[in-house]
Fold this sequence. Notes:
Distance between the termini: 29 Å
Number of helices: 3
CATH class of the largest domain: Alpha Beta
CATH topology of the largest domain: Chitinase A, domain 3
Number of strands: 7
Amino acid sequence: xxxxxxxxxxxxxxxxxxxxxxxxxxxxxxxxxxxxxxxxxxxxxxxxxxxxxxxxxxxxxxxxxxxxxxxxxxxxxxxxxxxxxxxxxxxxxxxxxxxxxxxxxxxxxxxxxxxxxxxxxxxxxxxxxxxxxxxxxxxxxxxxxxxxxxxxxxxxxx
Length: 158
């Protein structure tokens, strides 16, 4: 399996989710199944079926998170020194050349992306257009609404 880049914060989030799944969600599902079994006939027991479905989801998510963590290449953006180039984990300040609007994004892994918080997925069109560029360069992004041109105002490794 290929390695998956993830920031240190993203790895901590996945570890916290895995801990919650194993210590809170899994025992709760086991208890729900036990309670449903105690009610008798399982053939028409909706609570039992629901608990079994939930158990399948929790166990599947545990396997998924464990797989992601085992394949993760954890990158600490504060330890990067890419000489001013845009790389995974860095924070980029951009200015839209048409409107003059300024935006700030951090390039992160798939599981940590959240546009509202300024976290963009490494495989997104804007991140792909920015990777390898430097402060002062322009990046042309193929957006759904058409082509957008951004000037890279600053690159930070925080």
